[in-house]
């Protein structure tokens, strides 16, 4: 299978070399890797240039966006900049963060997964992060059926059907919901362990805390599901304030009449799917 990788990178000189090294060592090499240097002020571009000079399939594109590390819009704007350089001659497309180390056979396994079932639309493994003692521990705050946004692989037909990635917080949830709405399945492989070098959320600013609630509004969750999801998130993160931040973000988005990310019909499917999962957990 042919595959392309897009890596958005903003001031990633601390991690990018290890990420790219793990990419070029893959047992099944990517057809093309586009690294998007997004307004970096450190040595990120020099690291990219070293790899582009050594590996013909690695390409660089420079872009300028806000310096604020806002989840959602910034990274997907950079991703879309890289997407402009790619043609349609691929089987699956990968959005990869610049602070991830992948096992050597990672994409060989992803290719096998997509080859095994044409209804699998999104695939990935699991993220591990170092604790205070230096041990790599699983960090997967979402359901085990969810692929973290740091390393998502999309079958081409699925990616095109869902209309690409949304430029908003919640893009890595709504993509899976829309994939399922369109008849695709999500596949996670517990044997695929990726190392995340920067712990989740360390670079997010205060404004970003409200965006999760806004995302729930724009995905048409409705208040009751938002309430349950916010409570679950706060408990998992052991951060009671996250519950109130989410609800505040939800009501701010509702009062501002923020644009929805999905249609009313898609929203109905999403709510039914969410209720089905909630009830399954309550009664199983």
From TrEMBL:
Entry superkingdom: Bacteria
Alphabetical UniProt keywords: Glycosyltransferase, Transferase
Pfam families xref list: Glycos_transf_2 (PF00535)
SUPFAM superfamilies (alphabetical): Nucleotide-diphospho-sugar transferases
Glycosyltransferase listed as a keyword: yes
Domain Glycosyltransferase 2-like: 5-148
Family of this protein: Belongs to the glycosyltransferase 2 family.
Protein name per UniProt: Glycosyltransferase
Originating species: Arenibacter arenosicollis
């Amino acid at each position: 299978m042919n595959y392309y990788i897009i890596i958005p990178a903003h001031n990633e000189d601390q991690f990018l070399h290890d990420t790219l090294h793990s990419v070029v060592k893959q047992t099944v090499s990517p057809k093309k890797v586009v690294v998007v240097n997004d307004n970096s002020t450190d040595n990120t571009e020099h690291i990219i240039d070293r790899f582009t000079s050594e590996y013909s399939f690695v390409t660089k594109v420079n872009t300028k966006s806000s310096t604020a590390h806002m989840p959602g819009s910034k990274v997907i704007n950079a991703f879309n900049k890289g997407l402009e350089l790619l043609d349609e001659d691929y089987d699956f497309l990968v959005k990869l963060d610049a602070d991830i180390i992948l096992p050597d056979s990672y994409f060989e396994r992803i290719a096998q997964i997509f080859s095994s079932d044409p209804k699998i639309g999104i695939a990935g493994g699991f993220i591990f992060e170092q604790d205070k003692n230096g041990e790599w521990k699983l960090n997967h705050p979402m359901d085990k059926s969810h692929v973290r946004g740091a390393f998502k692989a999309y079958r081409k037909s699925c990616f095109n059907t869902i209309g690409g990635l949304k430029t908003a917080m919640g893009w890595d949830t709504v993509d899976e919901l829309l994939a399922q709405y369109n008849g695709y399945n999500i596949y996670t492989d517990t044997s695929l362990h990726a190392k995340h070098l920067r712990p989740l959320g360390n670079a997010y600013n205060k404004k970003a805390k409200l965006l999760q609630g806004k995302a729930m509004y724009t995905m048409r969750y409705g208040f009751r599901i938002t309430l349950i999801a916010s409570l679950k998130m706060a408990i998992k993160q052991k951060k009671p304030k996250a519950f109130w931040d989410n609800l505040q973000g939800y009501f701010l988005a509702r009062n501002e009449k923020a644009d929805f990310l999905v249609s009313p019909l898609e929203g109905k499917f999403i709510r039914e799917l969410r209720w089905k999962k909630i009830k399954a957990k309550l009664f199983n």
